[in-house]
Amino acid sequence: QKTHLKNICLQYQLYLLLKNHFLCLLMNETGLIIIFLCAYVLKTAAGHCKWAEVLKDLERIKTSRDIDVILYTANTDEDKECQEPVMRCFFLEMKVIVQECYIKNCSKTQDVVNILKNGNARLQNNKNSATSAKCKECEEYEEKNFTEFIQSFVKVIQKECK
């Protein structure tokens, strides 16, 4: 979330600079360089995957030995129109992991909480989107152990970031 906030602040500063001095900038070489740099920064920020923070935290917890749960694990090869319900399923199951961590006092509890917070923040944007009737409910997927669940979750996020 910090990275995203920094990008927004930088973009806003660049916007103000361009708004106030655009014509002056076009008149000299330094101004043209600044305009090209602004365009590059905006392009780079737009290409940033919104799930990057979640992916980092998943990498941190995937080797955890103190999380021992069986979870509904969505398929990584679902249709494109079912991607959002698949993501929601993974985050619903993350709530189970959070509860397990609170009970067992896991070493990775904060990373798990971060995944849930960052994921829910990203999913809020698409809250009202329609779900296809052919998409499965979370409970219809096969139950798998924690390691397999995390591997599938990482694959789904990597697919989303392409």
From TrEMBL:
GO process annotations (BP): immune response; neutrophil activation; positive regulation of cytokine production; positive regulation of immune response; positive regulation of T cell proliferation
Gene3D superfamilies the UniProt entry points to: Interleukin-15/Interleukin-21
Membrane-spanning intervals of the chain: 20-42
InterPro entries: 4_helix_cytokine-like_core (IPR009079), IL-15 (IPR020439), IL-15/IL-21_fam (IPR003443), IL-15_avian (IPR020451)
Compartments reported by the entry: Secreted
Molecular function (Gene Ontology), one example: cytokine activity
Pfam families recorded: IL15
Keyword Signal among record annotations: yes
This protein's UniProt keywords: Cytokine, Disulfide bond, Membrane, Secreted, Signal, Transmembrane, Transmembrane helix
CC per GO annotation: extracellular space
Family: Belongs to the IL-15/IL-21 family.
Matching PANTHER family: INTERLEUKIN-15, INTERLEUKIN-15-RELATED
Name of the protein this chain belongs to: Interleukin
Lineage: Eukaryota, Metazoa, Chordata, Craniata, Vertebrata
Protein encoded by which gene: Il15
